[in-house]
Amino acid sequence: MSKLPLFTPICGIRPAKGKAQEIIAPPYDVLDSEEARELAKGKPLSFLHVSKAEIDLPPGTDVHAPAVYEKAAENFRKMLDQGVLVREKKPCFYVYRLQMGQHIQTGLMVGACVDDYDANRIRKHEFTRPVKEDDRVNQIKYVKAQTGPGIIAFKPIPEIDAVIKKTVKNAPEFSAAGQGGVIHTLWVVSDDADIKTISDASEKQKTVYIADGHHRSAAASRVKKFMVAQRGSAHTGTEPYNVYLAAAFPVNEMKIWDYNRVVKDLNGLSPEQFLAKVKESFDVKETAGQAKPAARREFGLYLGGKWYLLKPAVKTPAMQEDPVKALDVSVLSDLVLDKVLGIQDLRKSDRVDFVGGIRGLGELEKRVNSGEMAAAFALFATTLDELISVADDNQVMPPKSTWFEPKLADGVVSNPLL
Fold first, then answer.
1. Conformation bin of residue 394: beta by default, left when phi > 0, alpha when psi is -120 to 50
2. pLDDT digits (tens, 9 = 90+) for 200-258
3. Which residues contact 283 (CB under 8 A, 6 or more apart)?
């Protein structure tokens, strides 16, 4: 049984001509049920009816109830039966472009080989949570398709870059505005020579990296094992469930935003006492405006209506010594959150919250000024090089280390199981 290429073409299911604007929707995990219900109002074709199917059931329905997955499957089938969604007649790749303001990133929608994920050729940098994994497994099994892509980062591949550049000269299959004004544009790569070029070029890659979508990836691996067991001798190794849906981007196209921290209390310290403790490990300078870090090892602190810029006054780990301990998020945790505030487990503590950099430092001020939070910390964004170093060292990042924008949309392409 021959192995599939790292990037394999898929018989994708995508919006029919002229329907993308009505269909594409934010990823399932960036909205709660009420937000999704509100966003889908008056939009019968919104993909939220598949990805957040509880919106079509009574308010308060458990999002993990079998009825939710059954409704998602029913809605997905209906969209296919009505011809609102169409299935590709042959396995293809897709060029997928996201544009948010001045930022543009262009990559591929692919089937990422599950065997390569299992072998750690597709490298991870996060732990997964069983409840979120189970949710994705059930969604895929009921709907009989992977409907939300993970994100893979790869080092630039000239042959793939050439195919992308050639493809985007043609008219796209669709271009539609998603949440936040992000423009989602899709081209179909159906030429056999181009498909072979992409698959062959991907096979030369020693490793690629999960940027986002660890639960989607892990769920696809579990679903493959389930399908192999279910199909028995009928399993060939080439079925669509042997890959998982991924949007793959060259690292130089991607943008990681800062992922900032807010804390509810100062661990019994007054603001003055807290600042004094911080000064044991940092040079602290009050700033006239917002203290937005401009480089690694710079931290902004918002406390008592004032901004301070912090720079470590003590030795901090270098990347080659330990790529996880060297991250700015780790330095802040070690020297402030743990040492001064006693917050030791970011996954479990209810004393800390996280704010994506897309919201700006004004959001940090708002959370503190309202009295909800006691202090806020602004960080310099983790880099893709740092992410790669952690993944190559087979380690995991601290929680909420990376915030990727622009977000992908659900409904752009789905990968059927069979």
1. left
2. 999 999 999 999 999 999 999 999 999 999 999 999 999 999 999 999 999 999 989 99
3. 310, 311, 312, 313
Under DSSP, the state recorded for 373 is: -
In degrees rounded to 5, what are phi and psi of residue 304? Answer: 60, 35
CB distance 295 to 414 below 8 Å: no
Per-residue pLDDT, 186: 98
What pLDDT is stored for residue 1 in this prediction?
Answer: 58
Q: Which 3 state secondary structure label does DSSP give 36? A: helix
pLDDT in tens, 366-375: 999 999 999 9
CB 327 within 8 A of CB 397: yes
User: What are the structural domains of the chain?
Assistant: 7-255 (no CATH), 259-380 (3.30.1760)
pLDDT, position 348: 85
Structure confidence by residue, pLDDT tens digits, 310-359 = 999 999 999 889 999 999 999 999 999 999 999 998 888 999 999 999 88
Q: Which ranges of 232-321 would DSSP assign to H, the alpha helix?
A: 271-278
Bridge partners for 287 per DSSP: 307
In 3D, which of 244, 249, 98 has the Cα closest to residue 161? 249
Q: How far apart are CA 223 and CA 242, in angstroms?
A: 9
Q: Which residues of 260-275 are buried (b: 16+ CB within 10 A; e: fewer)?
A: bbbbbebeebeeeebb
3-state secondary structure of 53: helix
Task: Tell me the pTM.
Answer: 0.91
95 residue type, one letter? V
Among candidate residues 34, 47, 36, the one with its CA nearest the CA of residue 176: 47
Structure-token pair, residue 152:
């893979």
Using alpha carbons, select from 301, 309, 365, 385 the residue that is nearest to residue 337: 301
Q: What share of the chain is helix, strand, coil (3-state, %, to 5)?
A: 35, 25, 40
